[in-house]
Amino acid sequence: MHEFWSTQPVPQGEKEAQEGPLEKKTVDDVPKSPYPIASVLEWWVPDVLESEDDLRQIYELLRDNYVEDDDSMFRFNYSHAFLKWALTPPGYVKEWHVAVRRKNDKSVVAFISGIPIDIAVKPSAGGDAEVRKMCEINFLCIHKRLREKKLAPILIKEVTRRVNVLDIWQAVYTAGIVLPTPFTSAQYFHRSLNPEKLVAIRFSRIPPQYEKFQNPMQMMKRNYAVPNAPAVRGFREMEAGDVPAVKSILNASLAKFSVAPTFTEEEVHHWLLPREGVVFSFVVADSNNVATDFVSFYSLPSTVIGNSKYNELNAAYTYYYSANTVPIKVLMGDVLSAAKAKGFDVVNTLDILDNKEFLQDLKFGPGDGNLHYYFYNWGYPIVQPKSVGLVML
Ligand SMILES: CCCCCCCCCCCCCC(=O)SCCNC(=O)CCNC(=O)[C@H](O)C(C)(C)COP(=O)(O)OP(=O)(O)OC[C@H]1O[C@@H](n2cnc3c(N)ncnc32)[C@H](O)[C@@H]1OP(=O)(O)O
Ligand SMILES: O=C1CS[C@H](c2ccc3[nH]ncc3c2)N1Cc1ccccc1
């Protein structure tokens, strides 16, 4: 059971592991050369920032081979612009974008990415959080034709080596599957904006109690209708001038959670300023035009696999927020209006952060997907998802 993960510094499910590092090594212990790989394959570092063609190759691998739901009805379809954004935050390390190509035709067959992140972790016994520089791992993907050949452990060991050689010893990551050992498990929730399309692609179905109506779909549309203008006075798109205020209120909000990132001003600028078709952010400005509240969401479409009428689902995902002068359910209500106005079909979220405070009132329904959160080389007790303030793209 877990031939690879049983060899790794992750909690192995025995008694509560002690909190903190599970193994201690130094940079001198780290091999200086890349991990060995099959002779027909080669390691490759794409230049996602400067080479549109390198970015396109990573985009296409993920478009055709990345995460699907259990019934293979949908597959994430992260856009070019989204991947460039997700992979190149301030201080990113090019070599942590680890790809594998076939030597003969240079086709990309696998990928895994790491980016730097400062994570504040609170000791379970209480007390001040410890801020730790970690690596956030995402986009692990092996081409469908190369599955179940133990290539994933090789990718994981190589990215670990490239992170360790820079004296970073912890990572954080999420997965839809259960591995040794989650520190929390979150549940997906979905808020329909375009019920007709969601029923047509068989993501949603008309609830049986609607059959009594003369026009069930009309009633569903009415149930999920949202205002076409924001309710909150002073609600507007975030601008560069809001960065200092947003940094201040967001870091203060995230400090309440047991596990959450901290953001520098440059990171607020990168992660939270609006980017066309990628990330959408808004503030509530007071009479001096100073941001008192903040809310955001990102665009992550999914390919609809094998549907004649629609081939893409336009999904928005709630991102970071700081609700101070208005309740989060009022602020998130304006997010629903903005997402509907921009043509999104559904808003997805997890029961992390304070999200449970708006799920019911805003008519989010539970999905059948879970997202498990993990640390690498850091023992931590299992916490509830509402203690977690980290959003993974
Ligand atoms: C300090 C720095 C540390 C940095 C590293 C921190 C750790 C980062 C860890 C990665 C975080 C990724 C975060 C995300 O991106 S989560 C998204 C993962 N990607 C997908 O689901 C896309 C579609 N699936 C695939 O591309 C492949 O099925 C993948 C690549 C997922 C596995 O390939 P394949 O199916 O061909 O299998 P194999 O024969 O090569 O390898 C089998 C071994 O791999 C273990 N496995 C399977 N799925 C995952 C998974 N999602 N995380 C970790 N381990 C996984 C599995 O338990 C088994 O080990 P063991 O059970 O026998 O022990
Ligand atoms: O495209 C994919 C692949 S896996 C992920 C996902 C997550 C939770 C889900 N609950 N029901 C379907 C589903 C799919 N997902 C996004 C998604 C989310 C809701 C509806 C359709 C697709």
From TrEMBL:
InterPro entries documented for this protein: Acyl_CoA_acyltransferase (IPR016181), NMT (IPR000903), NMT_C (IPR022677), NMT_CS (IPR022678), NMT_N (IPR022676)
Region Disordered, annotated ranges: 1-29
UniProt keyword annotations, A-Z: Acyltransferase, Transferase
Domain Glycylpeptide N-tetradecanoyltransferase N-terminal: 24-184
Start-end of Basic and acidic residues biased regions: 13-29
PROSITE patterns xref list: NMT_1, NMT_2
Biological role stated in the UniProt entry: Adds a myristoyl group to the N-terminal glycine residue of certain cellular proteins.
Protein family: Belongs to the NMT family.
Protein name: Glycylpeptide N-tetradecanoyltransferase
Organism for this UniProt entry: Bodo saltans (Flagellated protozoan)
Lineage start: Eukaryota, Discoba, Euglenozoa, Kinetoplastea, Metakinetoplastina
